[in-house]
Write a structure and sequence with these properties.
The complex is a heterotrimer. Chain A is α+β, with helices and mostly antiparallel strands. Chain A has helices at about 25-30, 80-90, 100-115, 130-135, 150-160, and strands at about 5-10, 10-15, 50, 55-60, 70-75. Chain A has two domains: about 5-75, Ubiquitin-like (UB roll); about 80-160, [2Fe-2S]-binding domain (DNA polymerase, domain 1, Orthogonal Bundle), CATH 1.10.150.120. In chain A, strands 2-1-5-3-4 form a five-stranded mixed beta sheet, with helices on both faces. In chain A, strand 1 (about 5-10) and strand 2 form a beta hairpin. By secondary structure, chain B is α+β, with helices and mostly antiparallel strands. In chain B, strand 2 (about 25-30), helix 2 (about 35-40) and strand 3 form a beta-alpha-beta unit. Chain C is built from 19 helices and 27 strands. In chain C, helix 17 (about 640-660) crosses helix 18. The two termini of chain C are about 45 Å apart. The chains are: A alpha+beta, B alpha+beta, C alpha+beta. Chains in contact: A-B, A-C, B-C. The interface of A and B includes residues 46, 66, 104, 108 and 140 of A. Bound molecules: flavin-adenine dinucleotide (FAD) and FE2/S2 (inorganic) cluster (2 copies). One FE2/S2 (inorganic) cluster binds near residues 47, 48 and 58 of chain A. Chain A: It holds the Pfam family Fer2_2. Chain A: It comes from Phytohabitans aurantiacus.
Chain lengths: ~160, ~325, ~750
């Protein structure tokens, strides 16, 4: 099986994996970058969110081979004011959804900055990042502990 | 997941040649549906041809005012495109109301059209499903069928087509461009998906060696006054129970001069509501005319115990959307 | 992506010595969690780790007649496939006495997995594949083919209800409670309602799925497990595998949510340890989301009759609640749905009865506020209905029935400030602005409604062993095998210990989540904070006495403790509560009984007033929550920041229960069809408005530091408040959860 080369958090990594291995499993089980979480393995929770070339994706539905040569950022490579904001606003409890929430929020903020609309956007292009916009745009990240208020506050603070 | 071969295509012709000689091969777009189904053991291709690096990710304005969308354009890019936002707002809305930011960043236009049903029994390897295994029976009919269809169903299958984007595209009369080593075909979106009939495992007109290369939108002035409404079991991140894509325009006499209407969540394929459109065309805009048209469209609906409410819900949602569009028009 | 430069953060306002308790300190493990450094159970690295995937039965009841593993074994990378034919034999589940030993009570089911050919529910694990990689294990597991001899199974709750029989109950909860003649009083009541409410099964669906890494070294077993009961579960595993408890270590430093779902030992834990023994290598068994739904229990469904009789001026004369819930044939829990009805209102005549039906389903288990989550929906909806019958404000009706003593036991309340909670809450929420008639408030296409309900959760205290060490460098170490599943447990205990020792908060380190530590309580029933605090305070008091004595000797009285230790050339001093010796364990049981009996002198509970505003779409029936206030009577708050999060999180879970959550068990065959997060709808960001929570902060004088547990009370009353608000908005009573849009149309 050909060796897979992945660029993660600015470093080159090699892994000997079959093509059916997801990016998530390569991270967690082959490279032991376990900060990225598996909550459902079916695209239905967002815990596995990572950034690829700055865009957020769910790594559980991503075959690792498909992402060779792309710039992958996981929570281990994130150094962002959101992280402290999450702690200060208590935007976490068990912490299992948290890396996904943070990666997702980083991707979301740059989507918004680039003018991408959401289902909550009435105008042609988004204006301010209102609480309703944050909640809609972050709906791909489920938090069973229900830390939603703190998460939204943390994002709001960093966005403004 | 079963083992498979992985190939990365960088050239359309090479990809087409390859699939022509490998009947067990499948194209891989964003993978958001195919990878999930492979993990569940529902799909087991021998080879995956990764098409995401093919140069089919552009959106071009056509001289006639239409739009040509490459099959590999990501859902989020299509939804954010200024021409789509301005001229076909309901297409943008439909996409943004589907899945999540992460999934829309991965999902491609071609893959979205070909995503498979979310019927609980299709997804459960231990349950009977004619779509998965022709002749096995349908466990959904007498099971949990809240998400299942009331329109276009057959004895064999009541599975809903889950795409939101495709519902808006059906209303737009989009055309799907497909290529194989045998040539290029153009298929109207409203004919692209098949009704289940006795062969629910056959879902579209696409042949196994064909690649979707683009979707073309005709120029459609009425689409500038359009709206997509999705009704579901939570405020976001859920498939539609009912969705309505509608565009509406009025003549100088105040009567409906042009209308497009399509339904999602209730049918086995993206459902163009032509019966309702015909009744609405030339009618005065009123709660009554909207309700009559909606009821006529849903007259053919066949309810199941778990989804009978969708008939009324679909009618109400159609009325609400048309009312909204009417108010917007008279306000502007 | 562009990485952002680290912006300087305000240094945390330093906590003054003696002033840690009551301060909104950030949770201590926050940094580890936001950087990805926190390692959860499935994430521990062992060089020769193998990966396991279970195979689940696809019938509800029967016998395995043949099982063919050849195709699975042939998958490259597969190390072993274990079934009942070749798995190591282990001891059967022991039945036991919960007071003596929690071990037996943590058994999720009574089944001796992979040691029997019997199938008791659809989804029961019947084989396990162990492989070099998870990919190989997952590829091989579906290739195991099984033949069954099927038996008739009882899987349709609606159809089985007529087989329900009165439940016996136990030490803490009686199956039936009677006072006066409730049926007669109902028949003659001036005003009455007689109603039926149902609730569906629910799943915990913690975002971290259950996972175990099991490592044998000789006959010592180490288990990294997703558990909220390390002590009980290490004893349990020791018994099952026939080794002394001291040789089994269960670790759970970080648990990704639990809510009762990780209290019992479910099949995955046992099978991982079994597989590790069989292959002689560490095994990781991380359940898929579907596997969690098939192999870890959730909340029972319920059907409830509730009848209330009252005088015209709103005094309750009769209160009847008859509930039917289910258990599995191989285990399960009596969900105490009548708990709120027994303790909230002063009805003259009362009859509350629990009925159980046994079914061939995965046994049900604790899920946040077991009993009260359902019971408060039933009771508080019915109170609202009665209020409308009486043309009375629903809060007023409740206040007219505030009892002076516990309505069932007659015991004194250790504290009860429900009236104050409703008063303060109504004021803050603007309840007075509500026009009481249904369908009277509207905002465009949205019908607006306001609802209220009482929150109630009883107090339980268990025992904890604790060791506290004070070192001459000024630091302290608190050790206790308690659990951190998101409650900020270590943060709160550090606050308590810091003040008790008179040292700075930052100087206190806390070790937890490990059965090698002095045993802590299981984290359930909202007991943990008060239970551990009791022992932390006792240990710190003893330590303080030792320091004081030493200070007198060394003439350092009045100086900080570390100065005393240095002056005495003592590196550290320790104090402990409890020990794991034989005698120590006996003493712990004694302490438990003493605490239990002491606590039994009062009727103790956390309470609160829930208020919400909802919007129901007039066209589509869609329900949105637009405003929330929970005003709580939950004793003294140690950490307002993390306490607010617990209460909010509970309310969010209640919103899910009210609006969208539902376990779908196919009544034809007992198969769980809501096995994924795409079919079991948890609330998402867009469903949750800003949630206002507040508390009276009045200490419960019968509890250490006045603490009342608050991890569950927030969930109670939520579904009723929403249902009541939906009635107010639409004029429709929804008596069957969830309140899906087809019901409000
Ligand atoms: C949790 C979850 C929630 C979702 N919610 C919604 C929702 O609310 N609304 C909605 O509309 N969708 C929803 N989706 C579905 C999502 O939109 C689809 O999965 C996605 O659009 C598929 O695109 P893809 O590129 O990832 O397809 P893939 O998974 O890559 O492919 C899907 C199929 O299309 C074929 N294919 C792909 N591209 C081509 C091509 N160019 N030519 C020929 N064949 C091709 C593949 O072979 C495969 O059979 C959801 C998905 C998930 C996981
Ligand atoms: S693990 Fe990827 S979305 Fe849940
Ligand atoms: S913090 Fe526990 S799931 Fe979000």
């Amino acid at each position: 099986m050909p060796e897979l080369r992945l660029r993660i958090n600015g470093e080159d990594h090699k892994a000997d994996v079959a093509p059916q291995v997801s990016l998530l499993d390569v991270l967690r089980e082959h490279l032991w970058l376990t900060g990225t979480k598996k909550g459902c393995d079916q695209g239905a929770c967002g815990a596995c969110t990572v950034l690829v070339d700055g865009r957020r994706i769910v790594s559980c539905l991503a075959l690792a081979v498909q992402y060779e040569g792309r710039e992958i950022t996981t929570i281990e490579g994130v150094d962002h004011p959101l992280q402290e904001a999450f702690v200060r606003h208590d935007g976490l409890q068990c912490g299992y959804c948290t890396p996904g929430q943070i990666c997702s929020a980083i991707g979301m903020l740059s989507e918004h900055a680039a003018g991408a609309p959401s289902a909550a956007t009435e105008a042609l292009a988004p204006e301010a990042l209102t609480p309703a916009e944050i909640r809609e745009r972050m709906s791909g990240n489920i938090c069973r502990c229900g830390a939603y208020n703190g998460i939204a506050e943390a994002i709001q603070e960093v966005a403004s | 997941m079963k083992t498979f071969n992985y190939l990365r295509a960088t050239d359309v012709d090479v990809a087409l040649q390859r699939i022509a000689v490998e009947p067990g091969a499948r194209f891989l777009g964003g993978g958001t549906n195919l990878v999930d189904l492979m993990r569940e053991g529902i799909e087991a291709p021998e080879t995956l041809i990764d098409i995401t690096r093919l140069p089919l990710d552009g959106i071009e304005e056509l001289p006639d005012g239409g739009l040509r969308i490459g099959a590999l354009v990501r859902n989020s890019d299509l939804a954010a495109h200024p021409v789509v936002r301005g001229r076909y707002p309901f297409l943008s809305q439909a996409i943004l109301l589907g899945a999540t930011g992460q999934i829309r960043n991965m999902a491609t236009v071609g893959g979205n059209l070909l995503q498979r049903t979310r019927c609980l029994y299709f997804y459960d390897e231990a349950s009977a499903c004619n779509k998965r295994e022709p002749g096995a029976g349908c466990a959904a009919r007498e099971g949990f069928n809240r998400g299942n269809a009331v329109l276009g169903t057959s004895d064999a299958c009541v599975a809903t087509h889950p795409s939101d984007m495709a519902v808006a595209l059906a209303a737009i009369d989009a055309v799907v461009e497909v290529r194989s080593s045998r040539g290029t075909r153009h298929i109207p979106l409203t004919e692209f998906h098949l009704l289940p009939g006795t062969t629910p495992h056959l879902e579209s007109q696409l042949e196994s060696d064909e690649l979707i290369t683009a979707v073309e939108l005709p120029p459609l002035p009425v689409a500038a006054h359009s709206y997509y409404r999705k009704v579901r079991d939570r405020a976001s991140y859920a498939f539609a129970l009912v969705s309505v894509a509608a565009a509406l325009d009025f003549g100088a006499d105040g009567r409906i001069a042009d209308v497009r209407l399509a339904l999602g969540g209730v049918a086995t394929k993206p459902w163009r509501a032509r019966t309702a459109e015909q009744l609405l065309l030339g009618a005065a805009a009123s709660e009554d005319s909207f309700a009559t048209a909606a009821a006529a469209e849903l007259a053919a609906a066949v309810p199941l115990p778990g989804n009978a409410f969708k008939i009324d819900l679909a009618c109400r949602t159609v009325v609400a959307v048309l009312r909204r569009l009417t108010t917007e028009r008279s306000g502007s | 992506m562009t990485t952002h430069a680290k912006t300087p953060v305000d240094p945390a306002p330093s906590v003054p010595v003696g002033g840690a308790v009551g301060r909104p300190v950030d949770r201590r493990d926050g940094h580890a969690k936001v950087t990805g450094a926190a390692r959860f159970s499935a994430e521990h690295h062992y060089p020769d780790l193998t990966y396991a995937t279970m195979v689940h039965a696809t019938i509800a009841r029967g016998t395995i007649t043949a099982i063919d593993t050849a195709a699975a074994v042939a998958v490259p990378g597969v190390v072993a496939v274990l079934t009942h034919l070749n798995a190591p034999r282990i001891r059967p589940v022991r039945k036991g006495n919960i007071v003596r030993d929690l071990g037996p009570s943590v058994s999720g089911t009574e089944v001796n997995y992979l040691n029997t050919d019997q199938v008791f529910w659809d989804g029961q694990p019947i084989a396990v594949v162990v492989a070099q990689t998870s990919v190989a294990a997952n590829e091989a597991a579906p290739l195991v083919t099984v033949t069954y001899r099927e038996q008739q199974a009882r899987v349709d709750f609606a159809a089985e209800q007529h087989n329900a029989t009165p439940a016996k109950g136990d030490l803490t909860f009686a199956g039936t409670k009677k006072k006066g003649d409730a049926e007669a009083a109902l028949a003659t009541a001036q005003v009455s309602v007689d109603l039926r409410y149902t609730t569906p099964g629910l799943q915990h669906n913690t975002i971290e799925p259950h996972a175990t890494i099991a490592v044998w070294s000789g006959d010592h077993l180490t288990v990294h497990d997703t558990t909220q009961s390390t002590d009980a579960s290490h004893k349990y595993l020791a018994w099952r595998f026939g080794v002394p408890a001291a040789q089994v270590r269960v670790r759970a430093e970080f648990v990704g949510g639990a809510f009762g779902g990780k209290f019992a030992v479910w099949p995955g834990t046992v099978i991982a340890a079994m597989a590790a023994k069989a292959v002689g290598r560490p095994v990781r068994l991380a359940l898929s989301r579907k596997a969690v739904s098939r192999a870890a229990g959730g909340r029972t469904a319920s059907t409830n009759r509730i009848a209330l009789g009252a005088t015209r001026d709103g005094r309750l004369t009769a209160l009847i609640q008859d509930s039917i819930t289910h258990v599995g044939s191989v285990g399960g829990l009596l969900e105490a749905t009548s708990s709120p009805a027994r303790h909230l209102y002063g009805a003259k005549n009362m009859l509350t009865r629990q009925n159980l039906v046994e079914m061939d389903l995965l046994p049900n288990t604790w899920l946040r506020a077991p009993g009260e989550a359902i019971g408060s929906f039933v009771l508080e909806s019915a109170m609202d209905e009665l209020a409308y019958e009486l043309a009375m404000d629903p809060i007023d009706l409740r206040m007219r029935n505030e009892p002076a003593t516990d309505p069932t036991s007659g015991k004194k309340f250790s504290q009860r400030m429900l009236r104050e909670a409703f008063e303060a809450g109504a004021e803050r929420f603007g309840w007075a602005d509500r026009n009481p008639s249904p369908r009277s408030m509207r905002d465009g296409e949205w019908l607006v409604g306001m609802g209220a309900a009482t929150a109630y959760h009883p107090v339980l205290r268990l025992v904890a062993d604790v060791k506290v060490r004070l070192s001459n460098d000024g630091t302290a170490l608190v050790q206790c095998g308690f659990h951190e599943m998101g409650m900020a447990a270590a943060t709160v205990q550090a606050q308590i210990a810091a003040d008790a020792l008179g040292i700075a908060y930052e100087k206190v380190r806390v070790e937890y989540g490990d059965s090698d530590l002095p045993p802590g309580p299981m984290a359930g029933n909202s007991n943990q904070t008060a239970t551990v605090a009791t022992s932390v305070l006792a240990a710190c008091a003893e330590l303080t006495r030792k320091v004081t004595a030493l200070a007198r000797k060394t003439g350092t009285t009045g100086q900080e403790p570390a100065a005393t230790l240095r002056a005495a050339h003592t590196p550290f001093l320790e104090a402990s509560v409890g020990s794991t010796s034989r005698l120590g364990s006996l003493r712990s049981q004694g302490r438990f009984l003493a605490t239990f009996l002491k606590d039994q002198r009062w009727s103790k509970a956390a309470r609160g007033a829930q208020f919400c505003e909802v919007r129901v779409n007039a066209d589509t029936g869609e329900l949105r929550i637009s405003r929330w206030l929970g005003m709580f009577d939950v004793g003294h708050i140690i950490n307002p920041k993390t306490a607010a999060s617990q209460l909010r999180g509970s309310i969010v879970m209640g919103i899910g229960m009210a609006m969208s959550e539902q376990t779908l068990v196919d009544p034809r065959n007992g198969r769980t069809m809501s096995a994924g997060l795409d079919s079991y709808y948890l609330p998402v960001h867009a469903d949750i408005p800003p949630i206002d929570v507040a508390w009276l902060n009045e200490p419960d004088k019968s509890m250490p530091l006045g603490i009342i547990g608050l991890g569950e009370v927030g969930m109670t009353g939520v579904a009723a408040a929403i249902a009541n608000a939906v009635y107010h908005a639409t004029g429709r009573r929804i008596r069957d959860l969830p309140i899906s849009l087809d019901k409000t149309l």
